[in-house]
Design a protein that fits this description.
Layout: H1 11-16, E1 39-43, H2 50-56, E2 61-65, E3 85-89, H3 97-103, E4 108-113, E5 130-134, H4 147-154, H5 163-176, H6 190-194, E6 201-205, H7 212-215, H8 224-234, E7 239-243, H9 246-249, E8 267-269, H10 275-278, E9 284-287, H11 291-298, E10 303-305, E11 318-319, H12 332-342, E12 344-347, E13 354-355, H13 357-368
Helix pairs in contact: 5-12, 5-13
């Protein structure tokens, strides 16, 4: 079974995915006039992300659509010059766009950052070196299928004999270098913050509560306070630690529930703390849908999920929600392989050529050790 996007028969997808071509980047040719280039409709792309995609996808004429309007508000001749492709960042989009594209048989692809992203936060406009392209949905949206979910349900890891050994090498390298999604500076504060360990220790991973990963990853939205309360109910004698999300600490995003309301149940970490540091001597992690839950699981820590993140439902976590579409049982290494190798595309940040996960890890590790 192949999941190579480059064998997709839709011509427009081939052109779009030249962004992820493994070939050495060629000298840019002079752009054709707009009238001679196919139209790419783009929705929900932050302004700071646009130049990179415009440079890499210069076969297209880009037309940006505001997510605060209806598709009919834009001058697009769907009958005589329909777009060749619709590209949407995340799940938010211009009203009516997907339906209109479906009516005109125009392919729609969604894009998001991958799981080994950068040395720094996207909210600080640090460019990403990995992208996930999905023709069905997106990995964090449990309300509908995604290409990642299909991979985990159907991929034949036994037949692809070289893949899991490669994944093991990458996983060992990732853990050795303490690589996470954003790779914020490592800290060494756990002993000081947590104090002497005298009982079971539970880490609750705070999230941005109005983020799509919660809104689309839960049947009903769950707050950070509810997460802490659930952990306290399950482990009434344990020491609970509540790690506030980095974007909230940087005041890039807001809390919707006040941590002070659960301060009597837990120790609240209101400062930046690396994940490896936060996991020090932790016996179990509670999360709603955070990737940090999977990163904890990769580091050998048991994880409880209240929502339905991409790594839940396969038998590697204790899940309080269910998803009837997820029918396969997968090992931790298989889930890692699908999510970190098969699903994303990695881009070298200096020359914009396609690289593999191992190269991406080594690049970030070198960047962190400068």
């Amino acid at each position: 079974m192949t999941l190579d996007f480059f064998k997709n028969p839709i011509k427009s997808l081939k052109r779009t995915l030249k962004l992820f071509s493994p070939d050495i980047k060629q000298t840019k040719k002079k752009k054709k006039p707009d009238a001679n280039r196919p139209i790419l409709l783009v929705s929900n792309f932050a302004t700071w992300k646009r130049p990179f995609f415009e440079e890499e996808l210069d076969d297209y004429q880009f037309k940006y659509l505001s997510i605060n309007k209806h598709v009919d508000d834009f001058d697009i001749d769907w009958d005589n010059q329909p777009p060749e492709l619709v590209l949407i960042w995340g799940m938010r989009e211009t009203e009516g766009l997907s339906k209109r594209a479906d009516d005109y048989i125009v392919p729609v692809m969604r894009i998001e950052d991958g799981f080994v992203r950068s040395s720094g936060l996207g909210s600080q406009h640090v460019p990403s070196m990995s992208f996930c392209l999905d023709g069905k949905g997106l990995y964090f949206n449990a309300k509908q299928p995604s290409d990642l979910e299909d991979m985990l349900n159907t991929y034949d890891f036994e037949e692809d004999k070289d893949l899991l050994p490669k994944a093991k090498v990458c996983l060992d390298l990732l853990l050795k270098n303490k690589i996470t999604k954003y790779n914020l500076p490592q800290t060494n504060r756990a002993e000081e913050i947590y104090g002497l360990k005298t009982k079971e220790r539970i880490l609750c991973i705070g999230q941005v509560e109005d983020d799509a990963s919660i809104l689309d990853g839960c049947a009903n939205p769950i707050t950070n306070n509810q997460l802490v309360i659930q952990a306290a109910m399950d482990h009434p004698t344990a020491q609970l630690i509540y790690k506030v999300h980095p974007d909230v600490l940087e005041k890039k995003r807001k809390n919707l529930s006040d941590p002070c309301d659960v301060a009597h149940l837990c120790t609240i970490i209101n400062e930046q703390m690396s994940l490896d540091d936060a996991l020090t001597s932790v016996d179990k992690v509670y999360t709603i849908t955070s990737l940090a839950g999977f990163e904890a699981r990769l580091r050998g820590v048991p994880v409880v999920t209240l929502g339905m993140p991409f790594y839940a439902g396969w038998g590697i976590t204790e899940d309080r929600a269910t998803c009837s579409r997820r029918v396969a049982k997968r090992s931790l290494l298989e889930v890692f392989c699908a999510a970190y190798i098969l699903y994303p595309h990695y881009i070298h940040p200096e020359n914009n050529t396609r690289i593999d996960l191992e190269t991406a890890i080594n690049f970030i590790a070198g960047d962190l050790n400068v």
